[in-house]
Amino acid sequence: MHPIWNITELLAYILLFLDEKLDLLQCSLVCRAFSVEAIRLIWKEVDDFHNLLGCFPRDIVSTKMSGPKSEPTRTFLLLDFPNAAEWNHMRSRASMIRELTFSDSDNYDPLLEVIQRHNINLTFPELISLHLYVTVTKRSQSFFPLFSASRLQKLDINFDGSNNRLVNKSMKTLLAQGHPLRRLEIGATSLPDVSQGYLTQLLETTPTIDSLCLMLETLAGEDIVQAAARLPQLRELDLKFTGRDGERTEYSPGFESLVLLDTWGPYTSALAVACAVNSPNMEEVHMSLMGEIVGPRGSLFQRIASMANLKSVSLTFHDSGIPQWADVEPILSCRFISKFSIMLGPFGLEVDDQVLRAIIHAWPNLTYLRLGGLYDNPSRFTRPSLYGLGELLLRCPRLEELILEVDARARPFRVEVTNELRAILQPRGRLLFDVRRSLILQGSEVNISEFLMTLWPGECDVISEWRDEWEGDAWETVRELMQQRE
Q: Where are the alpha helices (DSSP H) in 433-469?
């Protein structure tokens, strides 16, 4: 063997370029030097805990299947007690793992009971990333004692079902272990009051957290948000609340370092959190809102507009009262926005050429624009004309994706793009053009397709959700003509 392979750092670096574990396994068979480093990489990331059971002889581990055939549950049983060498084999592999995932459909209670009863020292000292999805119903054992020696930086937990005793036990153990977490994601079908207290304490004692995701019932999560507001390094906050509106309508100002806010849930909760954000560094706001708009319609938009450095805004109103463009307009004061989306249920926002001109003036560097509704209603609301669409494409040269409903009959158009103007247009990505509301004059498909292709030098596609009416066939013809271009 060439002496260069004795340089372990170089060998480990080269093996990092192998993506498939099968390739690493083949490398482990080359020689001892290759074996040590290849095995370390094979076990660095384990996507299912049951792979560790492969350290035991096959005649020791049994799998029992239960539950519906569509979503079966695997219960792992030990038919015999592994000897010391076999436990050491498992421990040696566990000590190499840096990222570990548990499947929610697997039941390890029998194995965990054996480990607890015999005081087996199974730990994961190198583990920094854990993804734990647990169906807690009819479970009795917690995994967290296994991670007492770990120094977790990324933790993703999801408790599916209801089991107050097990959830409380798990959260108490997690709090006591004091991991230096940076990214924390916690979801629960039902988070008991005791565990809510543990989670609040965890946030108060872990100032290193810079990314937090809470997937909880609204009433369970809203007080925890106040603790999150005091995290000094929190940059990303993702809230997914379910159930009825919460009781809190305001929070104390905080979130001093926040950059990204993503919410899914009641309008009142989202507005309260947005009003509490006191960070000058906000760059992204993504909100999917349920329930009726409470208070002045423009309150949320005015609050978002106060975040002067925003680069991306995405708003979806599922069943709220429909805002008007006058409510949304304050956001135009955020001059750095390059991605903007607003979807309104059920039928969308009334937008015309004048609105498009305002958007062009405020955001000439747009790369993504989406204006539309969740359902189709061709007889309602004003839509921009093709003339307005042309202005948008010409004056926003960085636009890469567009989802916009237009009315092809609203305003006559002519192809007046000169060669000089076309020469300055830079190639762009794909144009996704939603034409649910766009009616076409019969026989104008060729003119429209040429008009769009002239203004859009990149790949272009048309989507039409009309069903039985003539206009749907007409837009399909436009689409086919645009796809025929070289």
A: 445-455
